[in-house]
Amino acid sequence: MSERSPAPGGLALVQALVNTVDLESGADSLDTADGRARFGITEGELAQARELRESLRVALLAHAGHPPHRAVTPLGALLAAAPLLLTVAAVDGSAALAPADARTLLSRVAAAVAESLVAGTWIRLKACEAADCHWAYYDRSPAGRGRWCSMQVCGARAKMRRYRAKG
Fold it and tell me: What distance in Å separates the CA atoms of residue 46 and residue 29, rounded to the nearest whole number?
């Protein structure tokens, strides 16, 4: 839905996962083999991937100051099952967090969230406030108070609804 550029670093994975379903039409790219392959998940891992997706969406809605769209397993509870490894380079002493098992989507998402916490970018990944959208977008606005994935679509619809309600 959004014309915005992808989120930086590992947050692009989180954004892409959240945006696998179009809430307005109900189309879910995880229903296809190609859609699942994009995230390295099998059909047997589909329920877990969808649970993770919706828990991420709730966190992104919270980043934008919105209530959950539905009851979900708390994201922290899901990510607790994905251990991370701290690596330290012998050459320069630089440290990085990496998924303990890079084959699992949960571990890759946990590493992406941890990386974005360190970078200070996690709070900028948000979900659109439009109830029929909730598309993930990275808020690059100076004040960090973006509300919609697209000002031209969701923002314009919201403003039109408010205008019509006044009439």
Answer: 11
DSSP 86: E
Q: How far apart are CA 132 and CA 152, in angstroms?
A: 15
Phi-psi category of 65—alpha, beta or left, where left has phi over 0 and alpha has psi -120 to 50?
A: left
- Residue range 71-75: mean pLDDT, rounded: 96
Tell me if the pTM is above 0.85.
yes
Give dist(CA 6, CA 114) in Å, integer. 18
The CA distance from 12 to 29, in Å, is 16
Tens digits of residue pLDDT in 101-133: 999 999 999 999 999 999 999 999 999 988 888
| DSSP-assigned beta bridge partners for residue 85 | 98
